[in-house]
Amino acid sequence: MSTVAAVVVTYNRKDKLTKVLDHVLGQSLRPSWVVVVDNASTDGTADILADYAKRDDRVVVVSLDSNTGGAGGFATGMARGYELGADFVWIMDDDCYPNADALEELVNGHAKAESTLGTQLPYACSLVKFIDGSICEMNNPGTTWDWGRLISKGEQSVLVTHCSFVSVLFPRWTLTRHGLPLKEYFIWFDDQEYTLRITKDAPGVQVLTSVVVHDMGVNRGVNFGDVTPANVWKFEYGARNEASFRLHHENAVAFAKFVLRMFQGLRGGGVPWPLRVRLFKKVIEGVKFNPKPDFPRSVL
Amino acid sequence: MPPATFELVDESGVFDGEQPGILDDRERALVIGAANYYALTMPGQTFRFTVLRGPSGSLPSLTDEETSQIEWADDRQVVGSMVFRSVVHTTRSSGEAEAMIDLTVDVGGAEQIATAYNQLPGVLGAVRRAVRFSAPVQFDALRQFRTDVIHWRNRSEQPSKASPVLIDRGASAVGPGKVPAVLFGIHWLELGGAERWAVETVQLAKEAGLVPIVVTDRPSSHPWITRPEFDGAVVVPLTMPLPPGQESAFLNGVLSAFDVRGVHVHHCTWLYERLPWLKAVRPDIPVVDSLHILEYRTGGFVDISVRMSNVIDKHHVISPQLRDYLIGKQDVDKDKVALATLANLTVRGEAPEPAAAADGPFTVAFVGRFTQQKRPYLFLKLAAELKGSAPGDIRFIMHGDGELSGEVHGLRSRLGLADVLEIRGPDQPVSRTLAESDVLVISSDNEGLTLTSFEASAAGVPVVSADVGSQASLIADDLLCPRHPYPFIRTAADRIATMMTDPQQRETWLAEQREKSEAFAALPDARSMVRDLYQGWMQ
């Protein structure tokens, strides 16, 4: 029987976190461990986690000294799941409520797809819905040219090239072979970089019968037209990370296309010039920024 | 005794005749090993060995092409002569015995542990040694960079795999022998972790009722050839290159003299590379190998094993790291990889002892052979660093001996450590050193899994270790230090200083280490796995 380590990364969101943990612990396919990475929360998350750990010995709390962002948190949590000896790690944010059978469907869908295609698949992700039941704008994977291949065989799964870190299942070998997400990205584009990196061997699969609800404030995708003084810090990471990825992992043309897309987005949204300048500075930073992945340790 | 492969016709000086003591036990075992080889390779023939002994340090020549020459170097002494006849048959009607075959076997000189350490010859070697000895730590920094490069390169390369054998029966002229046996491939019969395990499996095979046929392929004096585990085994210490045509003849001899039920390869390149042929001839014989360590500088046996994976039925690995490497990185079928650890090689039956007394200076220990792999100079450098910066009284113990012994003594005085660092020989028990220690340091640059770490856990001593091999399986996360020398010293010194000022933290680390040791010890045990395997082969 394969073992699964669920990994939840949290930062100052204790109200939603309890709901997430209840959903994860209550899965029809029981995860062997639930690793919660606390990114140095200051809102009393630690007390809640201590309480969970006391009640359920599957809960493993990893408290970090500083906020390492989603990227650092996922890298830490996935490494811990790997160290615990898990055959799969299943990762999500602290505002993701998986349906009771989400994990079971993911594991089964992944295995079925592997046997149908006769090859190992590096990950499986869920269908992400918004709280009102509509599709979550921010969490839609990119598909392969032959995305319907499994559907034609009667499976409710789509072949994908990348996805966001909201309910993704990775088999152990993916981490052995490709390492961990780039913690240096801190936030944004870490999920795309990682899933694109591991898609090199074979595509991932989105299992449509595995459904999770993403309880984000507003159901809106990422768009450079939405930059404001309040959220520009996030876009700065996004600009640097994607610029770095397009240039160092793809090519100069992809880089140029990204810069053009960003420029058009900013212009379309009428973003003030000082903010545009800040983002372009980050693109320049991305030219030199090229972190390398860490690999997890084999412990058990 | 195993079923003989040959019968003795006449001898002089080899066995306990009128002149006991010309050949010692080890030399006699080597001669018998050579006789086994020829008896199996040339069935039915009669041979005369002229037995030579070389000067100290020279290695045996037992089965290679040189043995057919009846001329030898001036420094070789003749110490024995023996005529024997092979009792092996490989075809239904064994041909007429030809005339006697004369062979010259050289048992070499007094046993010497072969090491790659001083082998680079010429001016280049002299320069390298000079740099190595005058600046060991700086030299090591360069070595680690080289390791990084090779490590990085290995990451991007996938070794090719030999094609599988598609037939389920090889054509043969004669049925197998009657005596159930296991064919073992071993590196050499001298000290090493893999060899220690190999010797144990030889014993397990005997206990299961199988005759061990032990082939080695490395030049060595084989000091372990006289160990009791090899009583009743057919030992064949090969020396290379074998004469053309004899490789298959030898293996054919083995297959027809014995009912070979399985093949177990322990770090033996020669046997690994003959597995495809063996599978072609006898696809029914199960093949298992045992892997110990990921040698990232040489590729090592793990990569040979991966190459031959299609003709190996089970890979036994002793660490989770190797399991992950084979399954995750090299795409070896999950069901073919069996993790079974050697954890209880030493921890068995040992009760935890109380930690060292709180009074007296804080004691930092190094336990291990003084060899390049263990990097004793790094420990000495760390000691010098701590002597200057430690927040309290501190003393050091280095427990061991080995080829770098001179360097260890020299560095101790050069670094001004004579008054705080004690060097202990291997004649003293490790348990006492551990009982006196507050922390153990492992500075190795590569390791499989250090058994000393288990002993330390049992003795209540936290271990600060370089993060190499499978050490992460046993050592507390915070106490794993980078492999590069300067970061290693910095991190280790910091952690040890913390232990001195914060005993509570030391206890926390020790608890984590014990937890890891226990979880690791709960993994499947290699001994029972192999015992079951051999019993299965017996049925």
TrEMBL record, chain A:
Superkingdom of origin organism: Bacteria
Keyword Nuclease found: no
Alphabetical UniProt keywords: Glycosyltransferase, Transferase
Family annotation (SUPFAM superfamilies): Nucleotide-diphospho-sugar transferases (SSF53448)
Keyword Transmembrane helix recorded: no
Domain Glycosyltransferase 2-like: start-end pairs: 7-114
PANTHER family according to UniProt: GALACTOFURANOSYLTRANSFERASE GLFT2 (PTHR43179:SF12), RHAMNOSYLTRANSFERASE WBBL (PTHR43179)
Family assignment from sequence similarity: Belongs to the glycosyltransferase 2 family.
Name this protein carries in UniProt: Glycosyltransferase
Organism: Actinokineospora xionganensis
